[in-house]
Each structure stands twice: as structure tokens, then as C-alpha cells.
Amino acid sequence: MAKPRLWITRRLSDATIERAARDYDTVVNEADTPGSAAELIAASAEFDAIIPCHSEHFSAEVVAQFAPRLKIVANHSVGVDHCDLPALAARGITVTNTPDVLSDATAELAMLLMLGAARHAVAGDRIVRTGAWDFWSPSFMVGKQVTGARLGIVGMGRVGRAFAAKAKGFDMEIHYYNRSELPADQAFGAAYHSSVESLLGVADFLSLHCPATPETTDLMNRDRFALLPRGAVLVNAARGALVDEDALLEALGTGQLSAAGLDCFKVEPGGNPAFAAHDNIFMLPHIGSATTRTRDAMGFRALDNLDAYFAGQTPRDLL
Ligand code: 8YV
After folding, report:
1. The ligand 1 atom nearest the CA atom of 52
2. Has residue 169 got a pLDDT over 90?
3. 78 lines ligand 1 (CB under 6 A)
4. Is 286 marked active-site?
5. Any catalytic annotation for residue 239?
6. Digit-coded pLDDT (tens) for 37-62
7. Is-contact 62 41, C-beta < 8 A?
8. Which residue in 179, 279, 305, 317 has its CB near the most CB atoms, within 10 A?
9. CA-to-CA distance for 317 and 304, rounded, in angstroms?
């Protein structure tokens, strides 16, 4: 029997591509450019399966133009805000994602963002690097201490919990908001808040770990920034859609926020050019899950889902 035809939209890890090529009639987009609407539509006529990243947008308009050949979209991502799930379901296309395997890498990066934002990583690195470090004083680059501080986590899913586990190592007093309260043995001793507003009041550090949905768009807006303790630090390694970036700049300008650590932006790639003037924004280019081990694990998880589908089984990460 002929192997199913698979399109891999981006340059995934070597191990992933090797395994894919062994088991599928695989075409990799070696150019490693985001798949355009036209390319996705063309691919739906030529391939049985696609492994995309969050850089490919399966909007209702695109999906409506798909040919009937495409059977499964096995995402190489945990987030699926780039997929119109009802539109894909309406076309009978199976959709999967890659949860679990990227939680530690993403939580690790959120920790880096929190520490970097709290301790002047941007300005500190720059003055040493540029040879501009010609002064020292006990009142120089004084930051906000993470150890023992109060941490608010929005979204105690897999990544939120992995972040809480790491924050425990910094003796943080952890609070969280989640749609439902977690069983005590999964909450790392964190205190539950039944509303975001209640959480914000105690969040000297606030880290976002919820998906981007219509309900969470601009979750952090002007009104909500005002509820944080003065001088709070915002961390976002989830999705840019969660933060009103104008309101963020305003809160940094007034000192309501002392710093922010961001791996995600409204516009990606690119980010927000207005952020560049602010040394108290520590920024990374959406690399939360970008470790060798995690990239292999994400690729393998996507392939596991494909294998199950083509073996007539229910994929583990069926959405
Ligand atoms: C990846 C992500 O950078 O999984 C997600 O939702 O945003 C990131 O882990 C990306 O999607 C890799 O394909």
C-alpha cells in the first residue's frame, strides 16, 4: 500500500524529518518560509496530511477552499489559535496538537523572562557589551527580588503547572487563576483565585499561561494592569494576543509595571517596534519551546498522532 503523502511546512528537527521520511511520502518545505494560504490550499489537493507550525493559518476562508484529499492536520504546537477548529471539523479534517512535551522548555523560558525582566538584563548586558560600564554604586541597577515574592499565574494548565513547579524552587508564594480549581496535589501549594481580578491584586509577578481565544484577547488591558500591585512585573510566554500592547506601554510609563518579559507579541515575527526604546522590556523571539530535546519531542508527538490516525486509531492528542 502506498505511504500517505505528508507535507511538513517548516524545517522541523532532523530526527523528526528522518522518521517522517521513513514512514510517509514526505515533502518538507526546505525554504522554511511560513506556508501561505495559497500553499495550504494547493497542499490540500496533493497531501493526505500536513504537519504545520503556528505560523500557518488555517482560517475558515482557507479551509473552505480545501480539496477533499487532506485528512489530518497534525500540529507541531500545543497552541491551536492558528486553526479554525470548527471550520476544519466541518470539512471532516482531524486536528491534533503536541501538549505535555513542551511544558518544561516553555516554563523554563518564562522563568528566564521573569528573572531577566526583574534584574535589568537588557540594560545590564548592553552596558557591559558596549564598553559603556564605567560606573558602579550600591544604588546601581537595583532590581526586584524574585525569591519569596508573590507570583500570580493565569492558566494552570500543563505549562502553568510546570512554571509553578519551577517557581517553588525560588520559594515564591504562588497564586493562580484557572477556570476550575485544581486538586490540591496538582497545585504546588498555590492559592486559587476564582477571578483574574482577585489574582491581580496579589501578583507582584504575573505570568500568563492560558491559550489565546476570543475570551482571552487583551486579557491584560488598561483596567487590569491598574489592579496589579504597583511595580509589578508581567511575563508572557503564551501568546501576544493576551496583552493590549498600548496598555502595557502605558503601565510601564507610569511605573504601574516595573518591567515585562515577553516571548510573544501581537505581530510575529517582528514584535512591536515601540518596545525597543524600553530597557525594562526583556524580549525574546517566540522561542519558548526551542530546545533540541523539545523540538524532537514535539516532532515525534506530531508523528505519533499521524501514525495513530493512519492505523485507524484515535490519535492521543485529538482536538
Ligand atoms: C512553537 C508554540 O514555537 O506550541 C506552541 O503553541 O507557540 C511554540 O511551541 C511553535 O508552535 C512550534 O511549531
Report:
1. 13
2. yes
3. yes
4. yes
5. yes
6. 999 999 999 999 999 999 999 999 99
7. yes
8. 305
9. 9
| 75 CB near ligand 1 (under 6 Å) | no
pLDDT at 27: 98
Q: What's the CA-to-centroid distance between 256 and ligand 1, angstroms?
A: 30
CA 55–ligand 1 middle distance (angstroms): 9
DSSP string, 124-192: HHHHHHTT------TTSS-----TT-EEEEE--SHHHHHHHHHHHTTT-EEEEE-SSPPPGGGTTTPEE
The residue among 34, 130, 134, 44 whose CA lies nearest residue 82 is: 34
For the chain, domains (ranges, CATH) are 5-97+292-310 (3.40.50.720), 103-279 (3.40.50.720)
CA angle 165, 12, 308 (to 5 degrees): 80
Q: How far apart are CA 238 and CA 251, in angstroms?
A: 20
Sequential DSSP letters for 18-32? HHHHHHSEEEE-TT-
Cell 515585562 belongs to which residue?
A: 260
Burial class (CB in 10 A: 0-12, 13-18, 19+), 83: buried
Please state the rounded mean pLDDT for residues 199-221.
97
Place of cell 500568563: 208
pLDDT at 69 over 80: yes
Q: Is 245 a catalytic residue?
A: no
CA of 238 relative to ligand 1 center, distance in Å: 9
Q: Is 261 left (phi over 0), alpha (psi -120 to 50) or beta?
A: beta
In the structure, what pLDDT confidence band is assigned to residue 1 with cuts at 50, 70 and 90? confident
What is the chain's mean pLDDT, rounded? 97
